[in-house]
Amino acid sequence: MDLDPRFERKRSQICHDLARAQAFCRHLHPQAPPFRLIAISKIVEDVHLSIEPQVVLGAETVTQGPIFETAVCAVSKLGYLTATTGARWTSAGFYVVPASMSAHEQLAAIHSLNG
Length: 115
Fold this sequence. Notes:
The chain has 4 helices and 4 strands, in the order H-H-E-E-E-H-E-H. It is of the alpha+beta class. The protein has one domain. It has a 4-stranded antiparallel sheet with strand order 3-2-1-4. Helix 2 crosses helix 3 and helix 2 crosses helix 4. The chain is globular, with a radius of gyration of 14 Å.
């Protein structure tokens, strides 16, 4: 299946925003075991872009707990819907992985999401 053209224009920004959320999570949970965020992104009701984060801890994918809650909060602060249960999806969802970020970009992300 081809990627929805509405995502093609925003794919880079979505990956960058997920990386920003991941940097924020790592900042707030420094003692957590190594983890990575992934997400499912989709368009809801032809208008809203959603990112539903998941936390990958080793071989396990987690959708609850403190890191997950921080990820949901960060993604929401960035302007995305995070819970689409019962909503009408108007695109197929696709998995998103965080973009690579420099240390400077990570610090900027932490600063912007901390406020």
